[in-house]
Structure formats: C-alpha cells, structure tokens
Design goal:
The complex is a heterodimer of chains A (310) and B (326). Chain A has 310 residues and is mainly α. Chain A has helices at 2-29, 33-38, 44-53, 60-73, 86-121, 126-140, 143-157, 170-199, 202-209, 214-251, 257-266, 270-298, 300-303. Chain A has 13 helices and no strands. The longest helix of chain A has 38 residues, at 214-251.
C-alpha cells in the first residue's frame, strides 16, 4: 500500500511539471507581451527597457529555468499588467468560482447518483423512462446553449433572475443550472448502467436469500460495488466542470478564475496564465490521485497490489 | 410417505414476455410450464434438462427470488414468496454455478460468513464464531483465511466457501444450481462428495440442478427430467436408469461419456435443439425431435401417467404401448 501511494504521488508530480512546461512554451508562441503593453508605435529603447525589466530579453531556456526555480521556491512572479503578485489576483477572483464549483460538484454527485439508483431500481418503469429522457437531453445539449436559453427565458422574458455579475445568491442560480445539468445527466446514466449490472449479479440474490432488507441489498451490496466507475468519472467531471466554468463564467460575466484566465491568455500575461494553469493542473492531479487512492481503500484487489501495475 | 412434505410444488407456471422491437402484441414464453412435484425431508432430488429448459427459473421460484405466474409452492405447508418471513428464508438456501459471481468481491471471508447470522439473528461476534469455526474446519479452511478476500481463493475453494455460507444458517433445503459445472473435473468429485457427506451429517434436502447426467446420477435419490419448462419423466435414480421410458431421457443417458471403449453402445443422438416455438403448437413439446412421434403426438399434449410405483412419464408412445400390453 505504501509503495502504491509513493508511486502514484511521483507520477502526479511529473504530470504537473509536464503540463506546466507545456503551457510555458506554448504561451510564448502566441505573441510578444511587450508589444501588447507598449502598443504599435513604441521606440526601440522603451521596448528594450520593458523587455529587460520583464526578463523577456533572456534566451528562452534561461527564462524557463528562472520561472521553474521560482515555482519551486513558491515565488510565482508578478502580473505584467497589474504589477501585483499573481497569487493575490488569483485569490481575489477565487470566491465566485469556488462558490459555484463546490455547489455544482456536490449537487452533481448527490443528484446524479440518486437519479441513477432510482432509475436502476425502477428499471423500465415510468420513473426510469423519465430519467432516461432527461439524461439524454442533458448529455446532448452543451452548457453554453443552456446558458443562453436560460438567460433568454428567465432574464429577458420572465425577468425573474439577473443575467450576470455577482451580488446575491440569485446571481448564481442560472450559472449553477447551466453548469450542472450535463454532469448530473452523465453521472446518472453511468450510475444507472453500473447499478443494473451489479443488481443482476448472483451475489445480490445471495444477499436477498440471507434475508437482508431490500434497501440494504441495494445500498450495501449494490451501490457499493457499482460506485467504482462513478467515482472515476466524478474525478474526471471536475476537470470538465472547470473547463465549462470558463465558458459559463464568460456568458454570465461572473468575475471568477475562468474570466481571469481567459483575459490573461488574451493579453499574453504569462505569469498570471501560468499560475492559473498551475493551480488547476495541481488540483486535477490531486483529485485524480485521491480517486486512485480511494480505489485502493475500497477494493482489496487493488490494495494487495494485484492490479497496481495496470 | 408420512405427514407433510418438505416442499410441495403444484402446477407452477412462470412466464416471461417475449420482446420484439416495437411490437405491441404481447407474446409470452413459459420458462416453467405447469410443474408439480414434492420433496421429503433429507431427500436428494436431481433436475436435469438442457439449457433453456427452465431449471434455473424453477430454482429461483423455489428460493423465493421470483414470483410464480400461476400455481403454488409450499415449504413445510406455507407459501414461498419474495416477502416470506425470516425463518423460512433461512431454511432455503442456494448455491450457484459460478461461485465467484455469488460472493461480494469487496467482502472478506469473515464478512461473507457472518453477514447472514448478523442479519437473521443479530448475533454477536463470539456467538457467530461458535457456529462458523467448526464449519470452517469441516471445509478444510484455517482461521487465517477469514481475513482473505474472494479473489485470493481458487475456484474449488470458493465453491466450498459458498456451500459453507449457505450452511451457516442451517437450512433444511439446499438448492444447488449447476454446483460443479464451472469447476475442474478433479474438483467436481471433491465438491460432490463433500455435498454427500454433509447431507448424511445434517439431514439436508438437496435440489440439484444440472445438465450433466453423471453429476445428477452421483448425488440424487430421485431424478426429474425437464424439457421446455415441463416435466417429462420422473423416477427414482435406479428406476430411471434401469427402466428408461421417455425418448428424451434415453438420449440424455446415452450422452453420458463412457470410459470403456470396448463397451460400445447404440447412441440415441438428438438432432436439432429445444425451440420455444414448440410451446405455441399443439401436441407434445418434443414432437420435432422425437423419432417415434405419431399422429397423436402432433395433436395432443401427453399427460404424466405412472408406469411403475413412483415412476411417471409424459409420452404417448410409452402410454400406448402400456395399454396394448395390459
């Protein structure tokens, strides 16, 4: 088990470093931030002053080593435009994103799994058919289309809810709905099929013959075994969620991490962009690591190292 | 036969709808079609038939996992159904063909064995140990296997665990659905002998289901032959082999592999396969595959009639011959 944890952690760190480096080089291919800062008609001298103050005149290799050593030391640098540490800017914008994401993640897991279990237990009944219809709709329509439709209906026609910015919880209702419908739909589809599969296993019959109550059969022997693929996908969903948040935050002009990163990329604010990407990658990798480790805790076969090599 | 039988199955039918695309016309297939038989305490009954003949459905009906469409199953005189009481529930246990599929992969051996006791009688660990430990020893396991998980055992071991698990509740009737067909031949005999030994020790009744006549022959006192959801012949083991009546039974017996090459026997080879469509036609279900089918067989379904004490058969040919003789 200890070996398993160590191997997984090293792999996670390598992943973070690789993606971060990729972003470092790719962003530098997109254009020159000095030209953005000074505009089209800057003199050669002022160009050189700004470039050297931002260390952009150094060879690419040296820039990379400087930034990497900064990253290791915990010094993430200053934003080119705001002249403030990137972490400050990031923290300032964290609130709305966290508020939205945490509710979406909790709601997605809870509602998605609940729908899936109900649909599987009531297999082929009316409830199952209704849930299946909802999930097909939810899976096929992209979140930004939902966002626009919701704005059209609730803001323009009914005038019930605001269409953008932040303030009260009412501002979060529409972003929440448009972000969570897709994940709820796909989680409930997955839970449903995993549950149907598990409930048809012979050990479920055996459990019934032991005299266990039907709800305990469904939860203890059914859901516990069916939850595996669901946990995997939930981990992956968090990644897609953040991607979706970029779009949805832009549509609802919510001042969160999504809009901050988009602006940083547009204005070639490399330190800010790298910092945003670094935090996200680190979060995803950490979440995936937790998912892997929770497998080991849930499944004795993995814990014993039988599958650890896969 | 004295008093109440252990199990009485009377005119049980179980039908399943046949789904065909968007067709609204509902058609049904009878997995079990008017089956009746009875079992005494401590008796061992074998049910044989090829795949799809309704053996497993019958087993699930008797275990109370499915509800019969028609008919009644009585266990000690009270009706078997999905919501029957705990006392009855624990008296009927079942072991399956695939032992790995019938244990929860995320429970260790202790959990597998202790759960039924905890559920049924809210037993404490020390009490449960008193029941489990002796059984564990009989089955040839040591105490440290209790913390192992299913994947750490071999197929034969796991099947022994399944038997062990079913015995924990000291059932009266143990249904064995293809108990050995997923095991190596070398292990098969071991499991069958274990089942026999347990039967004599604990006065268990067995309902053994198999498609393998040699397994049934090894373990049963009485044999029931099923074809497409119906019983076609039933007799004691000795009678069935010495005085085989139904052409289907003859074919099944002829299909037992013979180890002695010098002993050549005339084989009654079955052609074709059991088809659900036969249920929708009048006459005998076996008509299409029977070489002795006559006009009556295409017209009327044969009844189960005795040919001997305790030996019943549903075949027009046999019955006509018997009438001519008398």
């Amino acid at each position: 088990m200890i070996r398993y944890v160590v191997v997984r952690t090293i792999r996670a760190l390598a992943t973070i470093w690789l993606v971060w480096s990729l972003v470092f080089f790719l962003s530098r291919l997109t254009g020159d931030p000095v030209k953005w800062i000074l505009g089209e008609f800057a003199t050669k001298e002022s160009y050189e002053t700004v470039a050297s103050s931002l260390h952009l005149d150094l060879p690419l290799w040296e820039q990379y080593m400087r930034t990497l050593s900064g990253l290791v030391r915990g010094d993430m640098g200053m934003s080119y435009y705001h002249r403030r540490p990137v972490a400050d800017l990031f923290l300032q914008r964290l609130g709305p994103t966290m508020a939205l994401q945490s509710v979406v993640i909790v709601a997605t897991s809870a509602i998605g799994i609940l729908f899936g279990v109900v649909a599987a237990v009531k297999h082929d009944k009316l409830v199952d058919k209704a849930i299946r219809f909802f999930t097909i709709v939810g899976c096929t329509i992209p979140n930004f289309v939902f966002a626009v439709l919701l704005i059209f209906l609730f803001c323009l026609k009914l005038k019930w809810l605001p269409s953008g910015n932040i303030g009260s919880f009412r501002h979060y209702v529409l972003p929440f709905i448009s972000l969570s419908i897709g994940p709820i739909a796909s989680i409930s589809r997955l839970t449903r099929s995993a549950m149907l599969d598990t409930l048809s296993q012979e050990y479920i019959d055996v459990a019934r013959m032991k005299g266990i109550s039907e709800s305990a059969v469904i939860i203890k022997h059914g859901l516990r075994n069916a939850l595996f693929p669901v946990v995997t996908v939930l981990g992956g969903q968090i990644v897609t969620l953040v991607g979706g948040a970029f779009v949805v935050e832009s549509v609802f002009s919510l001042p969160g991490i999504g809009t901050l990163s988009v602006t940083a990329a547009q204005t070639r604010d490399f330190p800010l962009l790298q910092y945003c990407v670094f935090i996200m990658i680190a979060t995803f990798t950490f979440v995936n690591l937790l998912v892997d480790l929770s497998y080991a805790a849930l499944d004795p076969r993995i814990r014993d190292g039988e599958w650890a090599t896969n | 036969m004295s008093g109440q039988p252990l199990l009485e199955v009377s005119h049980v039918k179980k039908r399943f709808p046949i789904k065909r695309g968007f067709s609204t016309k509902s058609r049904f297939f009878y997995a079990v079609d008017d089956v009746s038989f009875r079992m005494e305490e401590g008796e061992s009954v074998g049910i044989i038939g090829e795949s799809g003949c309704g053996k497993t459905t019958l087993a699930r009906l008797i275990a109370g996992l499915e509800q019969a469409t028609e008919g009644e199953i009585l266990f000690h005189g009270s009706s078997v159904h999905a919501k029957m009481g705990r006392d009855m529930r624990k008296s009927i246990q079942m072991i399956y063909q695939d032992p790995y599929a019938s244990v929860d992969p995320r429970m260790d051996l202790w959990g597998i064995l202790e759960e039924p006791l905890r559920i049924q009688s809210n037993m404490k660990r020390s009490q449960a140990e008193k029941i489990i430990m002796p059984l564990l020893e009989t089955m040839g396991f040591t105490e440290d296997s209790l913390s192992k998980y299913p994947h750490e055992f071999s197929g034969g071991q796991i099947q022994r665990i399944c038997i062990l698990r079913s015995l924990v509740l000291s059932p009266k009737l143990l249904i064995c659905d293809e108990p050995v067909s997923s095991l190596d031949v070398s292990i098969q005999a071991q499991i069958l002998n274990l089942l026999k030994k347990l039967q004599s020790e604990k006065s268990l009744a067995y309902l053994v289901i198999s498609h393998d006549m040699s397994v049934i022959h090894h373990i049963s006192d009485r044999i029931i032959v099923m074809y497409l959801g119906q019983i076609v012949e039933t007799a004691t083991k000795h009678d069935l082999f010495a005085n085989t009546q139904h052409p289907y039974t003859k074919a099944l017996i002829a299909a037992i592999p013979n180890a002695d090459p010098a002993k050549k026997q005339k084989k009654a080879i079955l052609s074709g396969e059991a088809s659900r469509a036969a249920q929708e036609k009048p006459g005998c279900l076996f008509q299409d595959r029977c070489e002795r089918a006559c006009a009556l067989c295409y017209d009327q379904r044969p009844d189960m009639l005795p040919v001997n004490t305790g030996h019943y058969v549903a075949c027009h040919d046999v019955q006509t011959m018997a009438r001519k003789d008398s």
